[in-house]
Design goal:
two-stranded antiparallel ribbon; 40% helix; 12 helices; five-stranded antiparallel beta sheet
Length: 316
């Protein structure tokens, strides 16, 4: 699939321009300081596709031969501290993203919502009916966010969107405004949960931006790094929620982030892992099966950690 999407100038570009612009004060050049937010935007948009391949011969790294056997349609693997791309495949080609969409829903809820608000599952958001939430149930927003992300609950995402914006269409406008702000220039959100929609798409590269931006929010990182949570309802009942991301239990150093699946999108996974002072981010899209998305992500992350050790040994 191929789409083109045009967004207004991104804030990170403004930040970079400001960093390079000199003001003249009595004939002296003065560099304009960046705000913390501008620094963050510049940092998460620093995606360097050249340096790693300049220093390291990729096929000399153990595990490189396995990459050609992966079934995933697209991926991007980067080192977070440098923004260096370690491996990528069709990373700038728009793809369906399934429930990786919920990363944006979660981020906006945490940024704009009152965690103590009560959210009810009403008829207009009880749509998919294969979700864990049920019609008439009420949750505190902070608890429903956990349920949405751990269980990948589609109706919970609708309920959160309606609560925050009044209706899901308005919420999608906010999602797209945030995407443009972050620098996701090849992304469009058409719903808050990633259910099949031709206008809900992104790229591995754009989703890396979203993942890096979101994980710098400590509340977001806590949610997506949670393996299990006993989620209370307002009426005193509880729901046992286990994270659908099995890498949290099975991959050393995994700290998140989100699973996704639809027939349209295939099996997707956004991952982050930390070992020996190295933090990697990986977006994997349209893998063959539910298990292959985890196995292939582990193969890529293993390769990434070995590659970064090789880079550290070889860099000038």
């Amino acid at each position: 699939m191929r789409y083109t999407a045009a967004f207004p100038e991104c804030a990170f570009l403004l930040a970079l321009l400001l960093s390079m612009t000199a003001c003249h004060n009595n004939g002296k050049a003065v560099t304009v300081a960046l705000t913390p937010e501008q620094e963050l935007l510049a940092e998460i948009n620093n995606i360097d596709s050249v340096t790693f391949q300049t220093i390291v011969n990729p096929d000399s790294v153990e595990g490189f031969d396995k990459l050609s056997t992966l079934s995933a349609e697209a991926w991007m693997l980067i080192d977070d501290s440098t923004g260096m791309v370690i491996s990528q495949k069709y990373a700038n080609e728009p793809q369906y993203m399934a429930s990786l969409t919920k990363m944006m829903t979660c981020l906006l809820a945490l940024e704009n919502g009152n965690m103590a608000d009560t959210v009810e599952i009403t008829k207009d958001v009880f749509i998919n009916r294969n979700s864990r939430v049920r019609l008439g149930e009420r949750y505190l927003l902070g608890n429903l966010i956990y349920e949405m992300m751990l269980q990948s609950d589609n109706d919970a995402a609708y309920a959160i969107a309606k609560h925050l914006a009044g209706d899901t269409l308005k919420f999608c406008e906010i999602m797209n405004e945030k995407a443009a702000y972050i620098g996701m220039s090849n992304t469009h959100f058409a719903n808050p949960n990633g259910m099949p929609n031709i206008n809900n798409y992104s790229t591995a590269c754009d989703l890396i931006r979203l993942a890096r931006y979101s994980m710098r929010d400590s509340a977001f990182a806590t949610v997506v790094g949670t393996v299990y949570k006993d989620v209370p309802l307002v009426d005193g009942r509880h729901m046992a929620c286990y994270n659908t991301n099995v890498l949290l239990n099975k991959y050393q150093g995994c700290i998140g982030i989100k699973t996704g699946f639809t027939r349209q999108a295939g099996n997707c996974l956004a991952s982050a892992a930390t070992r020996d002072g190295i933090t990697l981010y990986l977006i994997l899209l349209n893998s063959r099966s539910r298990s292959s998305r985890f196995n292939e992500s582990a193969i890529l992350l293993d390769y990434g950690f070995k590659a970064m050790k090789a880079f550290r040994a070889l860099r000038p």
